[in-house]
Structures are given as structure tokens and as C-alpha cells.
Amino acid sequence: MLRVGIIGCGDISNLNVLGYIFSQDTELVAVSDVDKACATNKLERWGLRTLKYYQDYKEMVDEEDLDIVEILTPHHLHAPMTEYCARAGVKAISLQKPMAHTIADCDRIIQMCKEENTILKVFENFRFYPIYLRAKELLDEKIIGEPLNFRIVNILTGGPSMPVGLRAYSWRINVETCGGGPEVFDDGQHKLSVALWLMDEQRVEEVYGWINYFTGAIDSPANIIWKYPQKSPDSPPKFGSMEFTFASNLYFPSNYYGIDEFIEISGTKGIMWINQCTSGGNFLSKTPQYPPIVVYVNGKVKKYGEDLPRDWRYSFINSTMHFIDVVKTGKGKPIYTGEEGKNLVIFGKMPYISHQEGRIVKWEEINAEAERKGTCYIEPPPPSAGRGMVKYNMRKKKDLKKGIEQGLKHKTFEYEYNL
Ligand SMILES: NC(=O)c1ccc[n+]([C@@H]2O[C@H](COP(=O)([O-])OP(=O)(O)OC[C@H]3O[C@@H](n4cnc5c(N)ncnc54)[C@H](O)[C@@H]3O)[C@@H](O)[C@H]2O)c1
Questions:
Q1: What are the tens digits of pLDDT across the range 222-232?
Q2: 282 & 257 share domain
Q3: Domain span at residue 255?
Q4: Is the pTM of this model over 0.90?
Q5: Of the residues 33, 43, 336, which should be mutated to test ligand 1's pocket, given the most ligand atoms within 8 Å of the CB?
């Protein structure tokens, strides 16, 4: 049995814990959080109230002889916590994305885990969402020929959705603790991961971005475009784009965060649409217009993935199961490795520098040396941030209420947590 400890019992721990609860190969032995009430609350909810609690994570690591540590804390704490665990001899560490708030810290984590022979996983769950796994299989079979253009639409909705603590916002809207903004950098890590993986790429070459803070500290609306590296002069150029829209009046029930994703990939002989991820399974999923995967090729439209679970939690369970298997068998590599996690952090920073400087940013410009020189510093939101807040967001509650009164189908919402 692999002994597991969790550091950080905030919002996401509810989902990260699932894989360990289901696994026959691990035993969850302890949790740590500076906030005792938050940790004991979670233990109660998970039905694990007898588990050991530590306020100080170092004490937990020193006393519990852990094989696996799951780090689920704000980004600026990822490197020091990884360092402590690795030095203390923890065999394997799963670090929630983004790997760190700076490239220097990514380098430090990679170096540390190499020196201590620690298995390091950067936890990015979209990569394991059942519908996305199916889409990847189809793409690998060349169902749409050679994929040329990737697009992901992110809609931040008016909910109703899972409650997110104010504390979780406070460190996310601070560039010093987050490493960028809460959407493009933080949540964007998932979308950029999928943009590389589905297109069979390791990184991008150039990025251009517009990032707006119209509604406050949230970096949305935003539009980002990029170019993948061209493999040879006679291979086709490939591009990608990502957009974030804060649709604050959009009634859109979700069991998880108030956001959803829609992907479109154009290839040399077809087009693929992948509908929904985070909010998959809600009423939109049940309409005939939104099957999980749609492919148009050779004059025919086909649907795929309707037999698969459309519930975001499976991306977490699958990701953790994969990691446990790597640790247990010593075979294969975690998804993602430190180097791959660092690539995502670089990618996530490029659009901000582009927006700040009004130019295309190249991959090579974002590194620890540039951080030291101050040439890839992400600025905090401008003083004008939030000008649209009152006008734009005040309508939200009214319209949502009005919509519900007018008889929208889903009048109530409950956070589903069925084990
Ligand atoms: N995979 C996903 O879809 C996803 C979604 C949300 C968050 N995340 C990631 O998960 C991580 C945590 O995010 P969250 O939303 O749960 O944040 P959160 O703010 O809800 O939780 C963070 C927790 O860490 C605790 N903490 C802070 N300092 C600590 C310390 N020194 N020792 C022990 N505990 C400490 C806090 O008390 C808090 O309970 C971040 O890396 C975030 O980007 C991933």
C-alpha cells in the first residue's frame, strides 16, 4: 500500500481525493492545511474523519513516511513544498498545475526532483477527460487528416455552479502568488495542455494575445492566437487560438466551476467539434445539438463518445489512477513530467507579455534569465480594471433570477458528490 498525504484542503481537494479513495493500491493517511476548519470539514465530507490532520505540512512529511504527496496549494508555494518533500525522501509528488508561478521555480522543482530521484507529476486533468481521450484516439487515426488549426472557446458563465471560496480568488488575482491572471494563466493551463496534446505538439513558437480586465481582476475577455513550430519547410503551418468570454448573464448549471469549453479542430480532410468539458453532463449535453464529439468528413457527419461519461470528475480520477500506476509499477512517465509542466507555464505567460507590449512573443523570450532581467514580468491588472464591473455584473443576478422565474428548467442546483 502506498501511503498518501495531501497538502492543501481547498476547493480542488474534493476532486483530487477521489482517485485515492477508489484505488486499491493507496492508503490516504494524513492531510495538512494551515486552516484547520477547512481540513476537518473536508475530512467530514469525504467520510474520513479519523484521518490524521496536521497544521504544519513539514510535520506531516516528517512523521508519516509518505510514498506520495499531493500538493494542492497556491502556486507560489509549489516549489518550497516540493523541495521539502523531495529532500525528506517522499518517493512521488503530484503537483497541481500550474507547476509554479515563475519559470525559475519550475527549474528549481525539476532540479530538486532529479537530485533526489523523486517521481514528479504535474497534475493536469483535462488530458484525462474521457471525451478528450476518445477525441485523441480519433485524431491519431487521422479521421480528419492532418490537424491544421485548433480553437478552444471558453465561456465563463453566470452559473449556478459549485461555490468557490473568496480565499481561492484572493491569491489567484495576485500576480505575485498566481504567476499570471486567473483565467488565461491559471485555468488556461488546461486549455493550453489540450492545445498541445491534441495537436501532437510539445510547444508553440509564437503567441499574440489581447487580455482585458474589463470586469475586474478577472483577465477576461481575452483572445490569444499562436503558431506551432513548423517541422520542416514542406510541412504545413499549424495555428491555434483560445478565447475567454465572461458571459455573466448566461444561465448555465454546472456541477463544478462556472465555465465550459468548446473545441474545433480543422484538418486536411475534415473538421472535429468537441462539445463541453468542465460543465459536461448538464442540460446542454442532453440536447441533440451538443453531442460530445462531432466529425464532418467525406460529406458525412458522425457523432462519437456518446457511450462515455460526461462528467468532469472522471478526468481527476483517471489522472490520479495513472499516476498511482506509474509509482506502483515504476513503468512509464507521469503525465505531465516536470519539463512538460514547465512548457505549459512558459506558454501561459506568453500572451500577457504580448498584450503588454503589443507584439508577437517568441517562445525563447520566456525563461528564468529573462525573469531575472525583468523582461518577462507580468504586470498586475491596470488601474482601469473593473470599470465594467458594476454595469456588466449587476445585471447578472437580476437576469438570472428573472430567467429562473420565467421557468427555466433547472430551478435548483446542488453540488453532486456521489462516491
Ligand atoms: N485541475 C483543476 O481543474 C484545478 C482547479 C482548481 C484549482 N486547481 C489548482 O489546485 C491548487 C489549489 O487550488 P484551490 O482552488 O484548491 O485553492 P484554495 O485556495 O481553495 O485552496 C488552497 C488551500 O491551501 C491551503 N494552504 C495555504 N498555505 C498552506 C500551507 N503553508 N500549508 C498547508 N496548506 C496551505 C489553504 O488554507 C487552502 O485551503 C492550485 O494549484 C490551483 O491552480 C486545479
A1: 999 999 999 89
A2: yes
A3: 130-311+337-419
A4: yes
A5: 33
